[in-house]
Design brief:
Pfam families: Fe-S_biosyn (PF01521). The chain is mostly beta strands and about 120 residues long. The chain is built from two helices and ten strands; from the N terminus they run E-H-E-E-E-E-E-H-E-E-E-E.
Length: about 120
């Protein structure tokens, strides 16, 4: 009797909207030499504990989640994945501000300025 193993594709931890994917493409088009992608992490800072940080990366870390987008590679810090599973990342611009916006079902609260969140 042979046992067949089926590998099911796992959904990405974070869903990127088309606007977020376009912003990643724009960032990669102007990235410094040696950049391999853009990385999302959740460093400890702000009044609520964790913050969202998006930065250029020049090397892949062992436990990072990797998402291929049309404009470049998007990484999620391996230590941050549990805080971000099921989140949606969008890019929003208006007359006064522009930035990534996160809809995170894991966030239990956030500070008044929106800089940080708790899980």
């Amino acid at each position: 009797m042979t046992v067949e193993t089926k590998i099911r594709a796992r959904p990405a931890a974070v869903i990127l909207t088309p606007a977020a994917e376009q912003r990643i493409a724009d960032l990669m088009a102007q990235a410094p030499d040696g950049t391999i992608g853009v990385k999302l992490s959740t460093p400890r800072r702000g009044c609520s504990g964790l913050a969202y940080s998006v930065d250029y990366v020049s090397e892949e870390a062992k436990f990072d989640e990797k998402i291929e987008t049309p404009g470049g590679t998007f990484y999620i810090d391996g230590a941050s994945v549990l805080y971000l599973v099921g989140s949606t990342m969008d890019w929003v611009e208006d007359d006064f501000t522009a930035g990534f916006v996160f809809n995170n079902p894991n966030a239990k609260g956030s500070c008044g300025c929106g800089e940080s969140f708790t899980v």
